[in-house]
């Protein structure tokens, strides 16, 4: 008899959990079947309130395997957390998240979406994306130099098409923080034949008052037989403003030293040599 009560209680708990789970239904999808290194995709999360009442404060936490990063305000993150304030009864909410593949060492990567109204989050949804390279070789690098008294970033880019068909609408450009000046125009090629290459050197001048770590993005893309591909490679570099107080102090020391040596030399011209002594 006691066992029947326990089983009945468990069934009630399962039923209650199912009812709560049914109030918010979640589904996820990615706009691409596979991602190459540095390739960008869009993760779409759809939430549906399948109940007769409004649901408030839905917590969402998104994580993924090591090959995937989430692009949040231009930065690559391994975790995304968000709170949906409210979803009315019978309505839905759609969230789109920019994702990026940073490695193709494993063939697939899982993206996990956890959700609920309180921690620990009780419900989860998982979607998978392939991570594999395309038959396109990319060589790029960045150097920072001081040219004409200005901090200048030199970024080289070369794309080689190793696929069996042509690439179309290939392009590359630099996305830099506000105030940075891009000297070179974006690269564009209507077609890149098999085994052919396109390349360009970009020059970006930093504002004089730039400080701290800055992120420069090399954005490039093309179309192949499977459609469009868009990539972003990040270069991070630090800037440090000169210590003007120290420069002024050193300048004053040099000036005082120069004046002292000049006065000493001037006095020395009035000293007579030993030849006049009697």
Explain what this protein looks like in three dimensions.
The chain is of the alpha+beta class and 278 residues long. It folds into two domains: 25-131, Sandwich (Immunoglobulin-like); 136-239, Immunoglobulin-like, CATH 2.60.40.10. Helix content is 17%, strand content 54%. The chain contains two helices and 18 strands. The strands form four sheets. The chain has a five-stranded antiparallel sheet with strand order 1-3-8-5-6. Strands 2-10-9-4-7 form a five-stranded mixed sheet, with no helix packed on it. Mean pLDDT is 87; it is low at 3-22 and 273-278.
Offer a few descriptive terms:
278 residues, alpha+beta, Immunoglobulin-like, five-stranded antiparallel sheet, 2 helices, 18 strands, disordered N terminus, disordered C terminus
Succession of helices and strands: HEEEEEEEEEEEEEEEEEEH
Please, what is the average pLDDT? 87
Number of strands: 18
CATH superfamily of the largest domain: Immunoglobulins
Strand order across the largest sheet: 1-3-8-5-6
How many separate domains?
2
- Cα separation of the termini: 138 Å
Helix content percent band: 10-25%
Q: How would you sum up the global shape?
A: flat
Which CATH architecture of the largest domain is right?
A: Sandwich
**Beta-strand content estimate:** over 45%
Q: Quickly name the level 1 CATH class of the largest domain.
A: Mainly Beta
Q: Mind summarizing the main beta sheet? A: 5 strands, antiparallel
